[in-house]
Each structure stands twice: as C-alpha cells, then as structure tokens.
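Work Package 3 (structural annotation) set out to generate three-dimensional models for the target panel prioritized at the project kickoff. During this period the team completed the workflow that converts sequence records into discrete structure tokens, so that structures can be stored uniformly alongside our sequence database. As a representative example, we reproduce one entry of 204 residues exactly as it appears in the project archive.
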Amino acid sequence: MTASTAEMTLPLVIPAATCKNLPPVSAEHTLVAQARAGDGRAFAALVEPHLGMLYRIAARACRDQALAEDAVQEALTLAFRRLDRYQPGTSLRAFLATMAVKQAQTMLRSERRRRVREDASASPEYPAGPSDLVEAERTARRVREVLASLPKKRQQAALLRLDAGMSYGEIAQAIGTTEGSARVLVHYALNTLREELKDVLDGD
C-alpha cells in the first residue's frame, strides 16, 4: 500500500467533541476498500469521527499533550498501513483505540528513558491560579499516576472504558480477551482508583 504523506495528513489538534457522524456500514466498507488501495482521503473520512476519542485516551496514557498528539498521529499512520487486518463490520473504534493506547504507552516509555539519559527529571510546573484549580490539577495528576501504576492490560481496559467509552465487548476485542475478563479488569482498575483517591472522595 502506498500513499503520499500529504494524502493522509490529519489534524494534530483534535477537538474533544469529535466522535459522531459515523459513516453507515455500507459506506464504511467502501471507504475501507478505497483506503486499502492507498486512498488517504478515504482513510481520513474513516477515522475523523474517532479523533476526539483517540486524543483523549492518548492524553490520559501519556499525561502529556505533545506526546498524545504524536501518539495519535503515529497510531493513525500505523492503522493506515495495517488496515488489511481490520475486518469491516467489526468495531473500527476498537481497532483504532487499541493502536492509540499502545502508541501512547510506547512513547511514554521512550520519553522516560530520554529524561533519565539527560538527567532532566524536574517536576512539571503549573501556572499559579485559584486554589480550586490547583486542587483539581493535583487530583487529575493523582488519577494519571494511579492509572500508570496499573498492570498494562488493566490500564488499557480502564483507558478504553473511561476515555473511549467502549463497551466491554469492544474492550475484549481490542485487548484480546473475553468480555467477562474485560469486566474484571475494569472493575479492579476502578477499585484501585477509588482506594487510592479515597481521601479526595471522602473530602467531596
């Protein structure tokens, strides 16, 4: 499959509300066939309704806006190359979301190694603001840290459930497990979040 970079360029700044106007199944089949033949515009039409969701889960996994944008772009490039593995009629959202999560996790690991090599592990700085905004950022950071500490498969399941809003069946398909196992993974992840954030939840 060949396609120029220009043909498949997609926006890096992704609106959070983008996750609607999905093409009908018959139209999706046509777009998939065209994209497999190298049509970048057809591929863009396929993935555009999912961009907001992809950015949200990548941002949660990376905990860094720039990394998340790069992860989404890399995931889309990979999906374009591997579109022959997608079965029309199954969940395209799951197909794309899985790649976005994996790319985000890979980039986060690479960034951590780079920071260690450069000995540049300074804590992130946040602009001064009202106390409620500071507290909200502290809580959000703790959520990200707890998710990052989870076992890989449990983390993936939680991200796909919380940020992609995927069903347990879609999660199972995405991470290669059963629907029952997907429910258990999400259940344990949420329990860990509740336990680690107990002081915040009790305070509210």
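Residues 1-20 have pLDDT under 50 and may be disordered.
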